[in-house]
Amino acid sequence: MAYNLLKGKKGVISGALDEHSIAWKVAERCAEEGAQIVLTNAPVAMRFGKINELAEKINAQVIPADATEVGDLEKLFQGSVDALGGKIDFVLHSIGMSLNMRKGRTYTELNYEHMLKTFDISAISFHKMMQTLWNMDAMNEHGSIVALTYIAAQRVFPDYSEMADAKALLESFARSFGYHFGMRNKVRVNTVSQSPAWTTAGSGVKGFKEFFQYADRMSPLGNASAEACADYCLTLFSDLTRSVTMQNLYHDGGFSSMGMNPAVLGLDYE
Ligand SMILES: NC(=O)c1ccc[n+]([C@@H]2O[C@H](COP(=O)([O-])OP(=O)(O)OC[C@H]3O[C@@H](n4cnc5c(N)ncnc54)[C@H](O)[C@@H]3O)[C@@H](O)[C@H]2O)c1
Fold this sequence. Notes:
The protein has helices at 22-32, 43-48, 51-58, 70-84, 99-102, 112-136, 162-185, 208-218, 226-237, and strands spanning 10-14, 36-40, 61-62, 88-93, 139-149, 188-194, 248-251.
């Protein structure tokens, strides 16, 4: 159901690779709520992803940008302001990739070149996005910036490896830049800590299937779906959350507050 929560708002959404991507669902829901969207992804994702299908569906322009390249980000946000006909109201950072994980290297044998690249793609790109928006003064007053993260930033999930450290950095950037953006433009910056979801990035984590089931049983509400994450993100882009900033917000069916759930052991609820 649509509520026109984003009527007249202009947003930039990164990370929609295919219909499983969380960003894909966010873009669809934002369009349903009346927002005008620019979609972006890495140039390489244009070749093997399905972003143009989404763009056609929601009538959005696509501007490719490698989020680790400030020059690309400048073109992205200038192009967005031009395409949308004004400053930007909301931005979604939905980008993550671990080189060490891809190469099958465990946490105790990380390659540091790969680690730096992982941090650049998965965390520093968020700072680069915000600094570019800041320098261009491209955000509207009371705008909203959201990045997606995972609870491995706070608790140990061994197979999440270096991505845990990348997410800790990402969440810290939200707090630190949130201060500056709040003081100057009343812009909010938050991270949403999402349940596991079946996407290209998610299912790349070793043992993902078993872990997905474990998290689902541990959470009183079950795992939060990517569709539910989209609903939550759009409330953060809307005017209903104008005073929420510099927070890491759990969207995980209650997982982050649990110590033990007997359901994990196959015991009945009582
Ligand atoms: N799926 C999960 O279980 C889960 C849980 C919590 C948080 N997250 C986070 O959600 C976000 C989105 O991931 P997803 O699960 O939708 O998977 P996804 O694979 O669909 O999205 C990841 C995106 O990052 C993009 N990307 C990679 N390198 C890039 C670069 N250099 N420049 C620009 N874009 C680049 C990819 O093209 C892809 O679209 C990530 O930050 C991820 O860590 C995912």
